[in-house]
Amino acid sequence: MGIEIERKFLLKNDVWRDLAEGVYYRQGYLNSARERTVRVRTINGKGFLTIKGVADGATRLEFEYEIPKDECNIMLDDLAEKPVIEKNRYKVDYKGLVWEIDEFFGENRGLIVAELELESEDQKFEIPEWIGEEVTDDSRYFNSNLINHPYTKW
Fold it and tell me: CB of 10 within 8 A of CB of 115?
């Protein structure tokens, strides 16, 4: 069984930009209900289907499968809730952990969020100087919520 333990943070500054190159992601939700989300996304010429359960703090069930990119694009264009989320993801190694920084475009332009996946909710980690306020428990920052409540409309 897949379990995701993830913490989310806003960023204080742009120092992280010199530490990684962005990769373009295009993703949409076939179901964005709080109890379960079903997401499709393209990354580097590959398609993925991901199913996530409801978050309990920083923990939730997560299952991800590679699917044909052409089929993924059809689902994004014809089946996914709109707007489809577009973003660049930057992966920054810091003190043995990988921070994933998402810079959003389109109706979510201006939003930049850093995520850190952990082995346990009580895992200790050092916070880089470019990391700001934690927003793990603020559901506005869930990608699935950015469809109905885009950042530019907050």
Answer: no
